[in-house]
Recover the amino acids of this structure.
């Protein structure tokens, strides 16, 4: 996700200046993505260059609020209407790591899978703890709860995939063993018959 | 703090000779009051065997199972039954509610079987149903309730009285994610109030409710996961 669209979405609520935007952004994602103020101002100037936002006169405190333009609103609508392409996401390091583990001599693939699974479950424990804590603190902070749920579901998906990898590797290993044994030079009567 | 449940080098072999299957091989595990431990593992890894042994529903072929310091293997049949009725609560995937009894009667049943007066048992049942937020449905029969409500009744039955060890075998199996979460929340609250809990699950998301997650493979504990210590640290690293 680009910060550009995040800021545009926040400005759709009404004009805001940099620090307000940063606070609103972090509040929306429950602190899972912290922005520095420099990123906010750099993004705002690019949005202004592209005519997606318009700077307003400074207020009494010397802060300059920005408002979203019609073009910015159209861009925001386009962003919401367009599904995120899977290719927009960074490469899956875990999948690559496991593929390499499978083909690198001397690597204990089961141990790689298990250490990742333990890390995933540990993260799940923490997210669940945060969720219960959040439930007790503020029932109405729905956006943050949904962000937490997203992290929980992503963790769960990764663990399910690891379970699948483990089961597949095990099944392949088990079916490969009898095949290897069949290659041992035990003379087979049928084969002898066939040779004749 | 005394462990509520302790498994010491527990083995369980089904069958014998060439047909022997080692379901558990040297499992050592403790669960303290206020602690929820989840057991994760694929089918056939020994999860349910472990739970049955912990609940005194099965006997180990080696090692010892202790509940509140008492070795279950040394107890008479009568004492063991009493421990199962009074100290241990069971939650099963398929609820196991008696269809001809109301929610309150289902929950009161273990206490009545234990010799409590009907009035006292019903009072305790109502308190347990209140704990799972179902006091309003106390007089409904199981088939008049949703799956989630039935499972909460089953949890109330597992918690009624002074149960200090709650054993749950895939308690959210047939429930949707929201309802399953509500069931786990109830379990978590009871454990936070001082019970010890052992939860068997193959769903990682459900194991996330536990304080400790134990991974079982082919009857052996291969790893365990405690909390990181600070949820806020995790968020910082995620961001």
């Amino acid at each position: 996700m680009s910060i550009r669209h995040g800021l545009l979405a926040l400005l759709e609520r009404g004009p805001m200046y940099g620090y307000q935007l940063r606070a609103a952004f972090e509040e929306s994602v429950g602190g899972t993505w912290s922005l520095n103020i420099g990123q906010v101002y750099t993004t705002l100037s690019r949005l202004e260059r592209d005519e997606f936002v318009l700077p307003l006169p400074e207020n009494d405190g010397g802060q300059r609020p920005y408002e979203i333009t019609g073009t910015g609103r159209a861009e925001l609508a386009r962003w919401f209407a367009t599904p995120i392409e899977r290719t927009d996401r960074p490469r899956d390091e875990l999948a690559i790591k496991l593929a390499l583990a499978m083909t690198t001599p001397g690597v204990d693939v089961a141990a790689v899978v298990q250490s990742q699974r333990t890390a995933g479950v540990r993260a799940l424990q923490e997210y669940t703890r945060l969720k219960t804590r959040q439930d007790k603190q503020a029932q109405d902070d729905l956006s943050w709860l949904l962000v937490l749920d997203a992290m929980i579901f992503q963790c769960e998906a990764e663990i399910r995939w690891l379970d699948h990898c483990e089961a597949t590797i095990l099944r392949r290993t088990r079916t490969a063993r009898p095949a290897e044994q069949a290659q041992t030079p035990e003379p087979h009567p049928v084969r002898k018959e066939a040779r004749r | 703090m005394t462990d509520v449940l302790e498994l010491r080098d527990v083995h369980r072999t089904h069958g014998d000779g060439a047909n022997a299957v080692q379901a558990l091989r040297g499992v050592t595990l403790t669960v303290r009051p206020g602690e929820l431990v989840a057991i994760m593992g694929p089918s056939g890894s020994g999860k349910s065997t472990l739970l049955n042994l912990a609940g005194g529903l099965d006997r180990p072929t080696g090692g010892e199972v202790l509940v509140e310091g008492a070795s279950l293997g040394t107890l008479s049949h009568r004492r063991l039954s009493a421990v199962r009725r009074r100290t241990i609560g069971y939650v099963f995937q398929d609820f196991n509610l008696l269809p001809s009894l109301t929610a309150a009667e289902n929950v009161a049943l273990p206490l009545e079987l234990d010799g409590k007066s009907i009035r006292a048992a019903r009072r305790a049942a109502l308190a347990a149903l209140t704990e799972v937020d179902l006091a309003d449905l106390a007089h409904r029969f199981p088939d008049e309730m949703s799956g989630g409500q039935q499972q909460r009744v089953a949890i109330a039955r597992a918690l009624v009285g002074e149960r200090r060890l709650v054993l749950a075998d895939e308690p959210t199996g047939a429930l949707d994610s929201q309802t399953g979460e509500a069931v786990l929340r109830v379990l978590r609250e009871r454990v936070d109030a001082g019970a010890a809990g052992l939860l068997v699950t193959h769903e990682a998301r459900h194991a996330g409710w536990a304080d400790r997650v134990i991974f079982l493979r082919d009857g052996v504990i291969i790893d365990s996961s405690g909390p990181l210590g600070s949820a806020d640290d995790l968020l910082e690293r995620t961001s």
